[in-house]
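Incident review: delayed structure delivery

Summary: a single-chain prediction request sat in the queue longer than the usual turnaround. Root cause was a stuck worker, restarted by the on-call engineer. No data loss occurred. The affected request and its eventual output are reproduced below so the record is complete for anyone auditing the incident later.

Affected input:
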Amino acid sequence: MAAVAGGLYRTIERTVDGLGYRLVDVERLGGGLLRVTMESADGVKVEDCERVSRQLSHLFAVEEVDYQRLEVSSPGLDRVLKTAGDFVRFVGSEISVHLYSPSADAHGRKRLRGRLLSVAGVGGAERLHVQLTPEAAVVPATKPRRGIAVKKRVALEAGTLLEIALREIEKARLVPELDFRPAGAKRSASAAAIGDAMEMNSSGSLGSEHR
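Output delivered after worker restart:
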């Protein structure tokens, strides 16, 4: 996978936005595939993808964009997060983060997974507050090699709070949260969550809205 040039990204973004959708990501993949991911408040249907694909194909012909195949789709459950606005929108969700460089606060790890609690800062100085989930606390098994010393990785405790600068993140995605409980159990859990939120608000705490 390779990033697209800034000029091409902005051109695609103007076209997608002009058709009433919101651009999520643009990727160059193997075999000359150019993948465009978009979203809409009303959801993205097959006919929406076809509409945008036709418009972009015409645009690429005029602009002489180098590609072999074009794929237009919706983000899916593991939606990519790129902008500060993306992270603000999904506060409260579980995310998977890949850093450019190992984090000293995370015992030299580059890959982290946790619950996004809040986003602070503006203008390129945004910072994420993330609470690690149990999956992130597991120490990966290391297979010793003959004659080579293996450095033991330190386990990260579940619930550990980390502050991550947005500029340090190479890639980030939502972690799909699938609920296989019966419908009745889901409604009960939802009602309990609403009750907790109302109790917090009545005590003067500011509740967060998942948009």
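Verification: The chain has a mean pLDDT of 81.
Action items: add queue-age alerting; document worker restart procedure.
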